[in-house]
Amino acid sequence: MVDPATGEAFDEAPDRRPDELDAVVGRAHAAWRGWRADPAARTAALLAAADAVEAAGDVLAPLLTREQGKPLTEAYAEVARTAARLRYFAALDHAPQPIADGRPVRSEVRWRSLGPVAAIVPWNFPLQLASAKFAPALAAGNTLVLKPSPHTPLATLRLASVLEAVLPEDVLTVVTGREPLGAGLASHPGIRHVTFTGSLPTGRAVAERAAASLARVTLELGGNDAAIVLDDVDVEAIADRLFWSAFRNCGQICMAVKRVYAPARLHSDVVEALAQRAKNTVVGPGLDPGTQLGPVSNADQLARIEHYTDRAVADGARAAAGGHRLDRPGYFFAPTILADVPADSPVVTEEQFGPVLPVLPYDTVEEAVEAANATGFGLGGSVWGTDLDRAEAVADRLECGTAWLNHHAELSLAQPFAGTKESGVGVAGGPWGLYGNLRPFVVHRPLEA
Ligand code: NAD
Known about the structure:
By secondary structure, the chain is α/β, with parallel strands linked by helices. It folds into two domains: 2-221 and 413-446, Aldehyde Dehydrogenase, Chain A, domain 1, CATH 3.40.605.10; 225-405, Aldehyde Dehydrogenase, Chain A, domain 2 (3-Layer(aba) Sandwich). Helices cover 40% and strands 19% of the residues. It is built from 15 helices and 18 strands. β13, α12 (346-349) and β14 form a beta-alpha-beta unit. Nicotinamide-adenine-dinucleotide binds at residues 120-124, 129, 147, 149-150, 179, 182-183, 186, 197-199, 202, 205-206, 220-223, 254, 351, 353, 379, 419, 424.
């Protein structure tokens, strides 16, 4: 594995092959019988798992920073979120639901687990996104086989060894390796639910693979979230929050702000406020105290960001801050604010997934809403202004799964998380995420024999 802060390899993970999956999935199937049978034991095990994750913070967080690049404080936050998610789902029940429709029968829905679940996750939040899969799947009584990204397998393997001590054998198995391991997992006939987080093209390939066995599919895909700034905004009051909504985790967040639309009259003020923050941000290795922005996670991603930025500049954009790699070892890219970007430049129309933010002017709110919605993605969006009623009326018109006012990407474990259009299929988060891992089983019984 390569440390993105140095560009140097520092460790390895097993490169497992698809023909090993029969044995892995077989063991997950065998473990399902015991795991689904006793809800009280399951809850106790998941609560113990949360405690174990929390207790392992000093091991997990530095390793996560080393392989992924994020500042250490954010790695600790990711570990904490993983533990919190285990606790949240351990406490959710899925009690039988009576069907009251006036008929003289007693009819109820009893929720049943599905069987072994396959989880495939990306490299931007290796632990947090894995827990978004395994916490609800295990709480529902399923077992799970988890495949992390080949860029970030180490903290996940360490997490698995922490959980081994508190979960029954084969309830959660981590398999690491390069493709076609994920493809093999998605198409394995023993898998009953494939839950995937990653890019749109891979999501499509995963859905095609899972179609062979008609396994349930949940896809959490990309985003190109717009932030619309309204003309009654106090630019200085929102600038910090808007900036970090785009740049946290180096912009490598599915629902980061990836485009800003500002009224023409305020456009240069917004560009200037964001550019000033970009220039003042402390960029450095995630393990250094004081670092606010780490390196980009891997060499491919750095090349991709550079490509989008160079293309935008060639299209006529001006870098009000950044616009280039940093001249030091590792995968560092200067936080970049782009002005004068043509609306059809790929940095605007596609998901660049990095520390680069185009700020585009608009004349009417109508035009801004239309531009915000003019993408295949539909993950999140936000509206920034002083009159919250007016801002909410604009937010209501965004075609996405979550819309914020004067915030972005603030998520609760209890809320549904679902993109629309090409941002996903199925719902994660809250009780909806639990039921995404269950099937209804209806028992219909007359009142008398
Ligand atoms: P990716 O699609 O390249 O990879 C995701 C995972 O799929 C990795 O584990 C990868 O090894 C695996 N994979 C690759 N090819 C596969 C195949 N043919 N079959 C099965 N699995 C395969 O995505 P990435 O570059 O790791 O992550 C970035 C993407 O993830 C961005 O598009 C981002 O928006 C998205 N993302 C979405 C969410 C969300 O919740 N909507 C959250 C985080 C990231």
